[in-house]
Each structure stands twice: as structure tokens, then as C-alpha cells.
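Batch job 17 of 40 flagged for manual review because the log was empty.
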Amino acid sequence: MIEFKGDLSSECIHFYIKKDILRSLIIFLLPALPFIIPMLILSIVKEELFWGVLAGLIFVIAVGMAIVEGTVFLKKKLPTQITIADGRIDKLSVLEPKNNPISEIEAVVDYGRWYQIYFNIGFRNNYVICQKDLIVKGTIEEYEKLLEDKIIRLKK
């Protein structure tokens, strides 16, 4: 059995906050653009401030929602415990507890101080994170041996 337990480092959390805010901006702004662009055009063509203010308001709301999604909810999705045993990976977190077989792992990305596990189950769960200094049972060598054919090491 291999187990990672504890709070992720601020470096790791900030990495995922940036990543999640960018993803959330895309999710919230893309549907808003078909409304924002015509409103801005109307504001310029008709010289009415109302449409420009409304477009700005929609933009600010979309960006605000992305920031909330990328910070508040992300911290509740991040793991407090990852257990690898009996051919399964169990992730414990406030919002998204997960339990997946090891056979569904698509890739394990080594970021240097932590690993991020991706599963090949449609939607990629970006929050199965194993921080190397939080290992409490087993060793990093056992972890790497178990997942050796899936590990992708990023160059710094």
C-alpha cells in the first residue's frame, strides 16, 4: 500500500489555481462572447452607453465566476489523502472523492515535487495529485515502480 496524506504545498496549490482559473475563464467567457460582442457593437454604432455598460457587466460577472470557481471550489477538490492499494487509487477530498482502478490510468505527470494522475475515463480529473513529501506509507521508489510505464517527466 502507498499513501500520500496531508495538505498540499502553497506552490502546488498556486500552480493548480492558475491552471483552473484559465480553464474556468474559457468555460465562462466563451458562452458570454456571443452576447458581449453585439452589445459592444450596438454601443458604438448607436452611441448608447447602456449596451457598453451591459457588456462590461456580463464580462465582469463571467470573470468573477471564473475566479471563484478557480479558487474557492478548487481548494475543496484538491486531495487530502491518496491511497493506492489492491489495484485501486482512492482520492479523499471535500468535494470530489474518487475511486478508480489503476488500469484506467492514462498518464502520470511528474512535476518535480508532485505527480498528477490522469485517467482515461472521458473527463480528465486534474485533481489526483500525489505530493512527494506527503508520502506516509510506502516509498517513492515503490510508487514509480508501480506506475513506471505511465510516468512522464517534465523538463524544467
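Reviewer: the log was empty due to a logging misconfiguration, but the result itself is present. Residues 2-77 form one domain. Unflagging and moving on to job 18.
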